[in-house]
C-alpha cells in the first residue's frame, strides 16, 4: 500500500517548500469551508457535485478538532524528515507475509543510515569530544549531569542512569581497593551525580502520560524539581527536535545563565547540549525549535539519519544513534576521570583494557550492525513464533536481568506505536497486555530497585499542580496535564510488578501456547544451565508448561563456544519437552565487550534486534501498512498530527487508484481538516469502548469509515466501520478496495 508521503533520501540537501507553508496558511480557509455557507455561485456548483465528506458522514467538526486545526498548527509535523516514508522499507507489510528474513533485512538496512551518520561525526567529532570533556569537568567540579528526554529519548535518559552509570559505579564499589580511590577522588555519591529524567518521571516508563509532552512548562518544572542550577551539565535529547517538554528544559537551563551577571554564550554553550534528529531547515518553521536552533548559547548536535524504518517510529534509528553517541561520550568521560588516579592494571579491573576512544567507538557501529544481520535467520524464527503466539490469543513473558531496561523499553514502546494495551497493573483480574516483563526479584519493590538502581521517583502533586492550573492557558492541555498528574505520583510503582515471584507465577504464569523469551548479556550465559539460577528456573517452567521458548544471548563467545553452548541448552531442554513440542529457539549475538564496561555495544545491538523484531511481529499481524504506523495511538499533539496525515494520505492514495475510479468514479481528495475531524470523532467513539473495541486503532477506523462512506455514497457510522475493521482488518480492506 502506497500513499502520498514524500520519500526523502538521507544525505540529500533539505529545501523548504513554499507550497508546504502555503498549505498551512490555507487551514483556516478549509475550516470556513466546513462550517460556513459559501457564496451563491459555489452553492450552485455543489448542488451538482457529490456532497462534501463531512456532510456525507453527517459529521460536525468538534470543538477540539477545530481548536487543533486553528490553534495547533505548530504541531502539524508531517513535513519533518523523520515523518517521511523510507524507500528501503516501502513494501514491508507485503514482504513480511511471505518472507520474514527478507523483511528483517529491510528493517536492518535502514540502520545503515546510522553507520553513515556516525562516520560523518567521527570525521568531525569536535562537539562529541567537547561533551565528553565537559562531563568529566562537571564531575570534578562537584556538579550534576542532567540528561532529559521524552518518550523514547526519556527512556534513553533513564538508561544512561540506570543501565550504564549506576551499575558501573556499583561494580567498582565491590572492589574495595578500587572503591577507596574512587571515593577519595570523586566522592562517595558519584553514582548519584548523574540524573536521567523523562517527561512524567518514572511512571512514564510504563506508558505515556497525556498532556505532558506538549508543555514546555513541565520541562522547566522537572529541572527545578531536581535542583539543577547554572553550572550543572544539561543534555536534552529529542528524536524530532520539536518536543515541547525537552525544549522547555533546555531553554530554562539557558535562562539560568542569562539571568546571571556577565552572561557569556561561549560559557553556557559548554554546559548546555541539545541533541536531535531532523534537519534544521525542516525545524525552523516551528517557533519552539527555532528558539533553540538559532540560540548561540546552546551546543547543538544534529544526528539526522533520514526517515525511520517505520514512518515516524523514532524509537528506532533516531533513538539508536542518540543512545550510542551519548553513551560513548559518557563512557569516554568516565575513562578520563579514572585514568587520572588509577594505574593501567587498575583500569583493567574497572573494565578499560586500553585507552577509550569515543571516535573509534563510533566507527565500530558497522561491526555491531554486521553481527546483527548475521543473526537474521534465528530472529526470523523467533518473529514467526511470537506473531503466531499473539494470533492464537496467547501471551508472551520476557525475562531479563542485566538487559532488563533495554528489554523493558522495547516492550513498553510497543503499546503507543501499535495501539496495544499498556502493561497490566497488579489490579487486572486477567492478562490483557500481550507482553509482560519479569526479572529476578522477590517482589515488586525489589524489582523496581533492581531496575532503577534507586527508589522510584514520581511527580509531587504539591509542586506541579498549581503551575499546571495557573500557567497552562490552553484548556485541553491543562485538563490533560492535571489528569495525568494523578497518575504520576510516587505511589505508582505499587501498581506494577515484574518480579519473578510467587505472585506473578500464580496470577500470570505461563499457559500452554504462551511464549517465554529469555534475554541475557555477557557473562549471564554462564548461568543458563545452573539449576539454581533464575534463568534455568524460567526455562524449565515454560518448557514444563508446554509454552514456547526463545533464548536471546548477547555475549563475546567465539563460534566454537557458541556452538557448544547451543548444544548444551538443546540437551537440557529435551528432558522437559512433551511429544511434538519444539525445543528452544536460540538467537546468539556475538559482540565484543572488551574496553566497554558499560556494555554499550551489547545493549545497542540488543536494542536494534528487539526493535526490528517487535516491529516485524506487528507488521506480520497486520498492524503496519506498507511502512506506515497506521496503528499509532494519538495520545499527544504530535501523534494526532501524524494520525491525521496518515488518514488523509491512505484515503487519497486509494481514491487515485484506477481500480477505485473504475468502480466508484472520480472523487475529490479529502483535506487535512476533514481527516482530522473524522479522527477526533473516532477518538471520542473509542474512548469509552475499551471492552468492545479493545486495541482498535483510531487511524484504521477512520480510514475504513471514510472509504466505506464514499463507496456507499451515504453516511457510515463508527459502529459499522468498527465491525468491518474487526472482521477483515485494515490491510485486507485496502487490498479489496483496490481490486479490479
Secondary structure elements and pairings:
Blueprint: H1 18-25, H2 27-35, H3 40-48, H4 53-57, H5 63-71, H6 92-98, H7 100-110, H8 112-123, H9 126-140, E1 145-149, H10 152-173, H11 176-186, E2 194-198, H12 216-225, E3 233-237, H13 244-258, H14 265-268, E4 272-276, H15 280-283, H16 287-293, E5 299-302, H17 317-338, H18 344-349, H19 358-363, H20 365-374, H21 376-391, E6 396-400, H22 404-418, E7 435-438, H23 444-452, H24 461-471, H25 475-485, H26 502-508, E8 515-521, H27 534-544, E9 548-555, H28 559-574, E10 585-590, H29 600-620, H30 637-656, H31 658-664, H32 672-687, H33 690-693, H34 698-712, H35 718-737
Parallel strand pairs: 1-2, 1-3, 3-4, 4-5, 6-7, 6-8, 8-9, 9-10
- What's the overall geometry? globular
What topology, given as strand order, has the largest sheet? 2-1-3-4-5
CATH homology superfamily of the largest domain: Glucose-6-phosphate isomerase like protein, domain 1
CATH level 1 class label of the largest domain: Alpha Beta
Structural class category? alpha/beta
Could you tell me the strand content as a percent range?
Answer: 5-15%
How many independent structural domains?
4
Number of strands: 10
Rg: 26 Å
CATH topology of the largest domain: Rossmann fold
Low-confidence stretches: 1-48
For the record, the CATH architecture of the largest domain stands as 3-Layer(aba) Sandwich
What profile does the largest beta sheet have? 5 strands, parallel
Q: For the terminal residues, how far apart are their CA atoms?
A: 15 Å
Number of helices: 35
Mean pLDDT level:
92
Helical content class: 40-55%
Amino acid at each position: 500500500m502506497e500513499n502520498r508521503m514524500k520519500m526523502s533520501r538521507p544525505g540529500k540537501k533539505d529545501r523548504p517548500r513554499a507550497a508546504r507553508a502555503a498549505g498551512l496558511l490555507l487551514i483556516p480557509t478549509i475550516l470556513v469551508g466546513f462550517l460556513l455557507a459559501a457564496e451563491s455561485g459555489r452553492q450552485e456548483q455543489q448542488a451538482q457535485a457529490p456532497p462534501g465528506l463531512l456532510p456525507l458522514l453527517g459529521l460536525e467538526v468538534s470543538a477540539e478538532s477545530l481548536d487543533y486545526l486553528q490553534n495547533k498548527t505548530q504541531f502539524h509535523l508531517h513535513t519533518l524528515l523523520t515523518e517521511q516514508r523510507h524507500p528501503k522499507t516501502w513494501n514491508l507489510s507485503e514482504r513480511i507475509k511471505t518472507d520474514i528474513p527478507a523483511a528483517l533485512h529491510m528493517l536492518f538496512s535502514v540502520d545503515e543510515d546510522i553507520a553513515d551518520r556516525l562516520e560523518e561525526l567521527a570525521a568531525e567529532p569536535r562537539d562529541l569530544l567537547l561533551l565528553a570533556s565537559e562531563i568529566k569537568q562537571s564531575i570534578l567540579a562537584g556538579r550534576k549531569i542532567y540528561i532529559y528526554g521524552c518518550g523514547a529519548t526519556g527512556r534513553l535518559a533513564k538508561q544512561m542512569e540506570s543501565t550504564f552509570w549506576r551499575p558501573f559505579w556499583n561494580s567498582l564499589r565491590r572492589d574495595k581497593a578500587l572503591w577507596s580511590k574512587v571515593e577519595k577522588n570523586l566522592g562517595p555519591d558519584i553514582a548519584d551525580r548523574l540524573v536521567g529524567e523523562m517527561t512524567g518521571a518514572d511512571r512514564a516508563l510504563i506508558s505515556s502520560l497525556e498532556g505532558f509532552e506538549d508543555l514546555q512548562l513541565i520541562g522547566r518544572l522537572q529541572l527545578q524539581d531536581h535542583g539543577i542550577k547554572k553550572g550543572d551539565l544539561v543534555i536534552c535529547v529529542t528524536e524530532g527536535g520539536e518536543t515541547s517538554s525537552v525544549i522547555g528544559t533546555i531553554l530554562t537551563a539557558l535562562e539560568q545563565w542569562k539571568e546571571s551577571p556577565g552572561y557569556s554564550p561561549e560559557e553556557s554553550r559548554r554546559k548546555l547540549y541539545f541533541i536531535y534528529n531532523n534537519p534544521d531547515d525542516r525545524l525552523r518553521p516551528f517557533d519552539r525549535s527555532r528558539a533553540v536552533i538559532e540560540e548561540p548559547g546552546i551546543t547543538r548536535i544534529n544526528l539526522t539519519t533520514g526517515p525511520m524504518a517505520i514512518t515516524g517510529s523514532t524509537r528506532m534509528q533516531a533513538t539508536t544513534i542518540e543512545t550510542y553517541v551519548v553513551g560513548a561520550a559518557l563512557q569516554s568521560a568516565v575513562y578520563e576521570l579514572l585514568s587520572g588516579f588509577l594505574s593501567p592494571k587498575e583500569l583493567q579491573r574497572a573494565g578499560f583494557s586500553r585507552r577509550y576512544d569515543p571516535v573509534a567507538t563510533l566507527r565500530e557501529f558497522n561491526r555491531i550492525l554486521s553481527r546483527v544481520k548475521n543473526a537474521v535467520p534465528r530472529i526470523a524464527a523467533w518473529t514467526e513464533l511470537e506473531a503466531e503466539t499473539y494470533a492464537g490469543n496467547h501471551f508472551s513473558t520476557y525475562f531479563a536481568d542485566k538487559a532488563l531496561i533495554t528489554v523493558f523499553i522495547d516492550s513498553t514502546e510497543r503499546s503507543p506505536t501499535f495501539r496495544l494495551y499498556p502493561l497490566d497493573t497488579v489490579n487486572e483480574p486477567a492478562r490483557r497486555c500481550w507482553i509482560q516483563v519479569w526479572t529476578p526479584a522477590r517482589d515488586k519493590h525489589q524489582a523496581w530497585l533492581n531496575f532503577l538502581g534507586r527508589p522510584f521517583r514520581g511527580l509531587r502533586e504539591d509542586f506541579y499542580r498549581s503551575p499546571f492550573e495557573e500557567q497552562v492557558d490552553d484548556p485541553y492541555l491543562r485538563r490533560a496535564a492535571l489528569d495525568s498528574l494523578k497518575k504520576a505520583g510516587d505511589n505508582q510503582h505499587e501498581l506494577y510488578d515484574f518480579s519473578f515471584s510467587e505472585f506473578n507465577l500464580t496470577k500470570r504464569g505461563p499457559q500452554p501456547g504462551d511464549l517465554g523469551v529469555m534475554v541475557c548479556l555477557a557473562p549471564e550465559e554462564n548461568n543458563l544451565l545452573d539449576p539454581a539460577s533464575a534463568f534455568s528456573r524460567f526455562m524449565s517452567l515454560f518448557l514444563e508448561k508446554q509454552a514456547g521458548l526463545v533464548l536471546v544471548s548477547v555475549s563475546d563467545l567465539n563460534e566454537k563456544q557458541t556452538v557448544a553452548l547451543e548444544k548444551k541448552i538443546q540437551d537440557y531442554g529435551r528432558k522437559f519437552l512433551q511429544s511434538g513440542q519444539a525445543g528452544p529457539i536460540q538467537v546468539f549475538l556475538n559482540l565484543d565487550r572488551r574496553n566497554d564496561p558499560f556494555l554499550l555495544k551489547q545493549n545497542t545491538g540488543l536494542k536494534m534486534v528487539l526493535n526490528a523484531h517487535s516491529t516485524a511481529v506487528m507488521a506480520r499481524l497486520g498492524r503496519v501498512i506498507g511502512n506506515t504506523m497506521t496503528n499509532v495511538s494519538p495520545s499527544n499533539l504530535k501523534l494526532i498530527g501524524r494520525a491525521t496525515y496518515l488518514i488523509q494520505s491512505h484515503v487519497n492514495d486509494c481514491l487515485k487508484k484506477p481500480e477505485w475510479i473504475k468502480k466508484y468514479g472520480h472523487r475529490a481528495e479529502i483535506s487535512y481538516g476533514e481527516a482530522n475531524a473524522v479522527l477526533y470523532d473516532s477518538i471520542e467513539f473509542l474512548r469509552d469502548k475499551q471492552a468492545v473495541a479493545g486495541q482498535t486503532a483510531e487511524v484504521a477506523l477512520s480510514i475504513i469509515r471514510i472509504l466505506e462512506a464514499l463507496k456507499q455514497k451515504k453516511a457510515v457510522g463508527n459502529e459499522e466501520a468498527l465491525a468491518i475493521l474487526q472482521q477483515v482488518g485494515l490491510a485486507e480492506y485496502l487490498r479489496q478496495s483496490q481490486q479490479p
